[in-house]
Amino acid sequence: YASLDKAGRKTLLASSHTFAAIATLRLEADDELLNLLDQAEEDEKFWDEKGMIDPPPLITGEDLLRAGVPPGPSIGMFLDRIRKAQLNEEISDRETALELVKKLRLH
């Protein structure tokens, strides 16, 4: 958990199985693991209250096509990169997401 970025943590916490696993791990956890489990539960509570664990995507494949991204695998790559930036709280609105797409297309 400690090595994950915010996107990875939110993806993990969005899973319906995560908290059943945490309860099971607590039964035999050492102090280090207990600290990580506590952090996961604190993160989940904080992000859940703010609606940040699994927010709606900022853009769609249709948005990318309208922005000039050609059809094909690059659509999924852009959507994944935008989603990760959203979950890492690097971007928070559609306009910024489309700006990031423009920057990524230049590189």
Structural summary, described in words:
- With 107 residues, the chain is an all-alpha fold.
- Helices cover 66% and strands 0% of the residues.
- α2 packs antiparallel against α3 and α5 crosses α6 (94-106).
- The longest helix is centred in the middle third of the chain and has 19 residues, at 31-49.
- The two termini are 31 Å apart.
- The model has no long low-confidence stretch (mean pLDDT 92).
Strand content: under 5%
Query: Which geometry do the CA atoms define?
Result: elongated
Helix content: 55-70%
Overall number of strands? 0
Low-confidence stretches: none
Distance between the termini: 31 Å
Mean of all residue-level pLDDT scores? 92
| Tally of alpha and pi helices | 6
Sheet with the most strands, sense and barrel status: none
The helix-strand sequence is HHHHHH
Structural class: mainly alpha
Evaluate the radius of gyration.
17 Å
Summarize the structure.
With 107 residues, this protein is mostly helical. The chain has helices at 6-14, 18-26, 31-49, 61-66, 73-87, 94-106. The two termini are 31 Å apart.
Task: Map the helices and strands.
Blueprint: H1 6-14, H2 18-26, H3 31-49, H4 61-66, H5 73-87, H6 94-106
Annotation keywords:
107 residues; mainly alpha; 6 helices; 0% strand; elongated
